[in-house]
Amino acid sequence: MTDTELVAAFAITQAKRCGLDEITPDELLLGCLRMISQFGIVTFGRWTFDLEALGVDWLENPDRKGVKPAYSQALVDVFDLAARIAKADGANGIRIDHLLVALWSESGLMGELRKTYGITSAEWRAAAVQLSVARQVKEVEAPVEKRESVRDYLSPEQAAEALGLHAQTVRAYIRSGKLPAMRVAGERAIRIRREDLEKVLEPLG
Length: 205
Known about the structure:
205 residues, two-stranded parallel sheet, 10% strand, Double Clp-N motif, mainly alpha, Multidrug-efflux Transporter Regulator, Chain: A, Domain 2
């Protein structure tokens, strides 16, 4: 499960705990903060947030069982904006830093944090840049065997990049059965084994 998928899972769990029928940007923001926290403490830019003070049980694992609340229109708009930000950033997919930038708002939990901590838009975006750089450095410094194990399973977008194809072409191969794929248990995320990519290739002549 990718970091972004974990953020969504934490948001779903938070919405269930609060008895909400819809997931709002507030739950997604809490999911982002939960993902980058340690021992319930979030250090983001010059700010420190306590998840317990924000009503988050930081020891709770994502709840993947039962009915999932629907996404509110406001949350859909956040994801759309995050996708645009990711595209402008030249990224293959939406990352946590893209979500945090897209969550900037004058209302809801973000609005409360802005007023309480005196956060400006530029400072928030700068903190997201720092987070992005720190996480990329961490990935590069990870043991080689760990990095290779992560790369054994690819998303359709990553598989498309590896093959030099469009992501929709890869998805069409999956639907037709030409490219074997698996679904992450209880989620919509699709993963493809790297070794299976050769199955869509055939010799010339």
